[in-house]
Amino acid sequence: MKNYLKVLFCLVFAIIMVSAAVDVSAQTRPRASQRQMVVQTVGTAEITIVYHRPNVKGRKIWGTAEEKALVPYGDVWRAGANENTTFEVSQDITVNGQALPKGKYGFHVIPGKTESTLIFNKVNDVWGTVKPKKENDALRINVTNEEGAFQESLSYLFEDVIGGSANIVLAWDKMRIPFNIEVGGTEDEG
Description:
The chain is mainly beta. It is built from 1 helix and 12 strands.
């Protein structure tokens, strides 16, 4: 009986030590795609984008499934890595002239070679690979892509922030996916 208790004690002790080592390892090893939060005041609205930043790492990012692109044209993409990318606005805005109510949205993109579709979906708390259902969309718009300088890490940039207007750009590899936001009721203060 004593040997049995010794073996049981050693087994429990070993399990505790392994669990602690795994937990410490998980806490000290950074994720490959780091979390990023970008917050910008535009006029009187606060815009917050939370996403995870994948890196190119020599891979083909944009292209067809046959080309083994990481983000194939025509497929819904979570617009980042890991968890769902979110886009939150503190008041009603317009995106490329179309209304987007105050709220927090799951942000997805359907990339194309020259044009992409942006999806602002009311479901914002799912894992990033869960495809948004069209009936939950708050807004779905098409935008024209641009070619840009090489960008290793996925980035969301706020450009030309003037009064109640700004351009937001999703930039990764050599593609830029821009869209404009406007906040109503703000004066242009330069």
